[in-house]
């Protein structure tokens, strides 16, 4: 049972109705989850790129900071520094700044985004310097699959928070929040503003909360009553949304469908695309048992000096050959036939039979 709450418009949306197996939510209408498609379109991050991995240790992090940022932090704790120090020590350059100062500022700015927004940890104010090692050459930085790295972190945090004793969650919670708003429109605030890209920017504007339930009991009731018919499996098919998505983001849809492990340094999580095929407009068969990564979840960055590319070489090879791991896909004839009959309840089967006859 998912223990955390999804915060929609600063209101607590209980997801007690969603059991969680692997990294997917179980609703009365089927399984769903945040996918590579969501992170690609919501955040605008590259998905089809090289794995974000490498060394997470250094013999002297101070030297690394000096070479890449200029100043050296007074306090480096386990390879982590305070983001407040970044803001205070690396101010925005002016028009007369040298190219070197601009580059160093860009590194500090990206480092703060990674630690404070995209892949935040429970501290909320610390960022690991392993990310700085990925910002040496911006050309190489732009070829990394930052989208899959962000999703890997969020998956791990979502899995960890299902345990009853967990009270905090890290990762890109704005992505989780925005995903819920797009897929649960009956629980979403009203925004009278055109869609913009990346799609997560839609929530940067003022919103109306009229008609949105505030009590936990009413929200649970709405989820039970309306999620089956009103859950949006493919919200990005809306023409108003489709028109704002840049052309290049729609050129390789296959990368969204791959069922492969996602690797981010010490973290490995499975992209269970075969269990949420309805989110890609495909018919859902009865899925095979989900991948179990219990042993992988025990691995963390505390294993210092680990050669992560070698440690996860098998999973990284799968990612590099990800197009060999696309589930069988079948387009439904009509929306009512989005799942094979064996997957649904008896009442839903009768509805499908009526649809077939029609």
Automatic annotation (TrEMBL):
<dbReference type="InterPro" id="IPR044824">
    <property type="entry name" value="MAIN-like"/>
</dbReference>
<protein>
    <recommendedName>
        <fullName>Aminotransferase-like plant mobile domain-containing protein</fullName>
    </recommendedName>
</protein>
<feature type="domain" description="Aminotransferase-like plant mobile">
    <location>
        <begin position="23"/>
        <end position="319"/>
    </location>
</feature>
<dbReference type="InterPro" id="IPR019557">
    <property type="entry name" value="AminoTfrase-like_pln_mobile"/>
</dbReference>
<dbReference type="Pfam" id="PF10536">
    <property type="entry name" value="PMD"/>
</dbReference>
<dbReference type="GO" id="GO:0010073">
    <property type="term" value="P:meristem maintenance"/>
</dbReference>
């Amino acid at each position: 049972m998912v223990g955390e709450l999804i915060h929609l418009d600063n209101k607590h949306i209980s997801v007690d109705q969603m059991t969680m197996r692997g990294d997917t939510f179980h609703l009365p209408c089927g399984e769903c989850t945040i996918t590579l498609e969501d992170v690609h379109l919501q955040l605008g991050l590259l998905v089809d790129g090289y794995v974000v991995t490498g060394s997470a240790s250094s013999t002297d992090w101070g030297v690394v900071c000096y070479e890449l940022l200029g100043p050296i932090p007074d306090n480096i704790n386990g390879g982590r520094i305070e983001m407040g120090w970044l803001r205070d020590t690396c101010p925005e350059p002016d028009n007369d700044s040298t190219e070197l100062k601009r580059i160093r500022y860009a590194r500090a700015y990206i480092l703060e985004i990674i630690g404070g927004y995209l892949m935040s940890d429970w501290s909320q104010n610390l960022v690991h310097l392993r990310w700085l090692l990925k910002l040496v050459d911006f050309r190489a930085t732009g070829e990394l699959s930052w989208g899959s790295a962000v999703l890997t972190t969020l998956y791990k945090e979502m899995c960890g928070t299902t345990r009853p004793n967990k009270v905090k969650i890290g990762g890109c919670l704005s992505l989780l929040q925005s995903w819920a708003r797009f897929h649960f429109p009956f629980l979403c605030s009203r925004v009278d503003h055109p869609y913009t890209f990346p799609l997560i920017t839609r929530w940067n504007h003022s919103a109306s909360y009229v008609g949105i339930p505030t009590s936990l009991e009413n929200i649970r009731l709405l989820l039970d009553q309306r999620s089956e018919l009103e859950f949006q499996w493919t919200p990005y098919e809306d023409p108003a949304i489709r028109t704002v998505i840049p052309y290049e983001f729609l050129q390789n849809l296959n990368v969204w469908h791959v069922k492969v492990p996602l690797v981010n340094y010490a973290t490995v999580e499975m992209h269970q695309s075969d269990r949420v095929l309805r989110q890609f407009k495909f018919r859902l068969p009865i899925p095979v048992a989900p991948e179990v990564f219990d042993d992988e979840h025990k691995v963390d960055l505390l294993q210092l000096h680990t050669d992560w590319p070698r440690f996860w070489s098998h999973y990284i090879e799968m990612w590099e050959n990800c197009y060999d791991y696309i589930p069988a896909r079948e387009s439904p004839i009509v929306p009512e036939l989005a799942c094979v009959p064996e997957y649904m309840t008896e009442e839903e089967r009768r509805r499908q039979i009526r649809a077939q006859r029609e």
